[in-house]
């Protein structure tokens, strides 16, 4: 069994610029942990590319062809998956992280099946495998709780967090659904994880991440929260979430560990540098805001009309699609499926973010 933790991750929920900020923190414990995190993520890039190209090889089929979840406990080590602690149909355990991983992966499965008739991530009944309490080596052969969650092309892995900035990563339904949506993408448009196509990849994961939560809570677009990862943060006045889809760039401000949210909310401020794989977690703020504006102007539950348009776009885009392709395609789908008024609303939303 290989030592893994983030061995072949496609996407981690905590973006590199947040980790880099923690590496400059005044707190030596946070600093040391962030450095371990950065070393690990540069070591895994090659495998990430492989797993994005070969998702089918990594899929485990469900024995029943229906919803099938397996939750493992990595027991604070970095070997995946760990010990099986809850299989499909098993009763609740005493461990809240195990139950959250089980329940929230089930909610995500139910959402895609009920809304889009999609049978699991691969639409072929793929088993949803989660490992909780994943640790990482600190360079001196000691283990500390992983300060992240990731989807590695075959399964989910969740750390327990450092307890100062992050807590158990299973706590946010939208984080679980975000990571599993990366899995859906691997079997559909498979948007290349770099530049604007990569920011669209992140955007879709945020969109369906929050839609699963809103659908589960039955919240309409005007009453729903558009925050990503609110529950995985240790509460503080300087932080509300990892990202705010409605108001990108405001999720945290002057935070001693995280700094200020750098996401742009308009094409005028798009990031064009090399960091964060060409701004995949940064520039996703621009389409995120367009989605929220579209959902709010159409009204009602966001998973209905806007969710259906975005899901169809996810199926139709290609690996190299850019923001302008996405804006054009969603307007076209809106017109074809829902008529001229919906098309107008979609166009207006993209225009407000400069597209
Ligand atoms: Zn992601």
What does this protein structure show overall?
With 355 residues, the protein is an alpha+beta fold. It folds into 2 domains: 11-186, Elastase, domain 1 (Roll); 195-352, Neutral Protease Domain 2 (Neutral Protease, domain 2). Helices cover 44% and strands 10% of the residues. The longest helix is centred in the middle third of the chain and has 23 residues, at 195-217. The N and C termini lie far apart (48 Å).
How many strand segments? Answer: 9
Task: Output the number of helix runs.
Answer: 12
From the N-terminal CA to the C-terminal CA, the straight-line distance is: 48 Å
**Strand pairing plus helix content: what structural class?**
alpha+beta
Total domain modules: 2
- Ligand identities: zinc ion
The CATH architecture of the largest domain comes to Roll
Order of helices and strands: EHHHHEEHEEEEHHEEHHHHH
List the uncertain runs: 1-9, 42-54
Percent helix, as a range, is 40-55%
Which CATH top level class of the largest domain fits? Answer: Alpha Beta
**CATH-derived topology of the largest domain:** Elastase, domain 1
Q: Please report which band the strand proportion falls in: under 5%, 5-15%, 15-25%, 25-35%, 35-45% or over 45%.
A: 5-15%
Task: Please tell me how large the radius of gyration is.
Answer: 19 Å
Mean pLDDT: 90
Largest sheet, in brief, is: 7 strands, mixed
Overall morphology? globular
